[in-house]
Specification:
By secondary structure, the protein is of the alpha+beta class. The chain is built from seven helices and six strands, in the order H-E-E-E-H-H-H-H-E-E-H-E-H. The radius of gyration is 18 Å and the shape is globular.
């Protein structure tokens, strides 16, 4: 038929091309331009869901400038992760939607502060909320943090290992044979 799979994917949705490739990638444009990047070390995290959701439309309505103006923060993040894994990320992590979400639900800010206690990289909100995450140096640290946070928190808290897309592709391929 002569169709380019990536062109078709970009028509379906801006970020669909990301899922056609293996491994970590930097997406630019609207998300349709995908460039592979080196993998960092395995990541461990604690995920916290406060028991309520936020309206994505409401969060974006509160944000005037939510797009990355310059790729510099993204490049800093990729360089830190590629060299040092979770321990090197530090202030490279950011989410420009946090301030809008916290304005809508101030308790999210307090929950993020609680989750971040003792973590060198702090904690951040996922996407437009309401889940939060904190990166940990190891699976054992993630399990300890999850236990500590559960004592004071009634929502969903769980340790997690971030599965690289490379591992996911290998698992999917071996499962289909």
């Amino acid at each position: 038929m002569g169709l380019d799979l990536h062109e078709v994917a970009a028509e379906i949705g801006s970020d669909v091309n990301f899922f056609l490739e293996r491994g970590p990638a930097l997406c630019t444009g609207r998300g349709e331009k995908v460039a592979p990047i080196p993998s960092g070390s395995e990541l461990h995290a604690v995920i916290l869901w406060p028991g309520f959701s936020l309206s994505t439309a409401a969060v974006y309505a509160r944000v005037r400038d939510f797009l990355t103006r310059t790729p510099r923060p993204v490049i800093d993040f990729l360089n830190s992760f590629g060299r040092e894994g979770a321990t090197g990320l530090g202030n490279a992590l950011f989410n420009r939607l946090e301030f809008a979400a916290f304005a809508l639900h101030p308790e999210l800010s307090a929950l993020r502060t609680r989750l971040a206690e003792g973590l060198p990289n702090g904690a951040r909100m996922t996407g437009s909320g309401s889940a939060l995450y904190g990166l940990c140096a190891s699976g054992a640290e993630a399990r300890r943090l999850a236990q500590r946070v559960r004592r004071d928190f009634a929502g969903f808290v769980a340790p997690a290992a971030v599965l690289s897309r490379e591992v996911a592709w290998r698992s999917r391929k071996s499962g289909s044979s």
